[in-house]
Design a protein that fits this description.
This protein is mostly helical. About 70% of the residues lie in helices and about 5% in strands. It has 5 helices and 2 strands, in the order H-H-H-H-H-E-E. It has a two-stranded antiparallel sheet. The protein is elongated, with a radius of gyration of 19 Å. The N and C termini lie far apart (about 40 Å).
Length: about 180
């Protein structure tokens, strides 16, 4: 039963993490960084146990996760800035600048491609020290964790200021009604 509870602990951390991160985005050394580090350590521990990693494999996986995690966080920050800029363009009563929105939309699309490329690069790097079964198990573990985080964010109504958690931004129509616009 103990091994069965480990995924639950990791998921509970994933449940708590988004709420705490949203509340306290203090800079380096803040709770956000501490919580991120705790989640990474727990995930690494769980991966080590479930994938039966050697010390060398665990160390290399930790370094790979750090390297590509940094890249993803940078892309996510850029994506947030783009979404904020789009939201500003789509405010009620403000005429949207079509050229600006076209550039923002292209930039959002480019970031998604870059994000996918970091995933591909990361999987390629793990192939140097994990066997195919370990890689598949790692991928499955990550997908379960990410799915649960998305579910939790959806239950909370998405991120503040970024829609309803499904990629929809709320905007008032000229008649005063709210209309959802899909932005993903």
């Amino acid at each position: 039963m103990r091994i069965e509870r480990l995924p639950i602990v990791a998921l509970l951390l994933a449940l708590v993490a988004p709420a705490v991160l949203a509340q306290d985005s203090a800079g380096p050394g803040g709770r956000r960084d501490q919580l991120r580090q705790l989640i990474q350590e727990r995930f690494a521990q769980r991966a080590r146990e479930e994938l039966h990693l050697t010390d060398e494999q665990a160390g290399r996986l930790r370094e790979t996760n750090r390297k590509f995690g940094d890249q993803r966080r940078e892309l996510e920050a850029r994506q947030t800035a783009i979404r904020d800029a789009m939201s500003n363009q789509l405010r009620p009563g403000v005429a949207a600048n079509r050229d600006s929105l076209a550039k923002l939309t292209d930039a959002a699309s480019d970031i998604r491609v870059q994000y996918a490329q970091t995933f591909r690069d990361e999987m390629r790097e793990t192939s140097r020290y994990l066997d195919p079964v370990q890689r598949a198990q790692l991928l499955t573990m990550r997908e379960r964790l990410l799915r649960r985080v998305r579910e939790i964010r959806g239950e909370r109504g998405g991120r503040e200021g970024h829609g309803d958690g499904r990629g929809y931004y709320r905007r008032r129509t000229p008649g005063g009604d709210s209309a959802g616009e899909h932005m993903r």
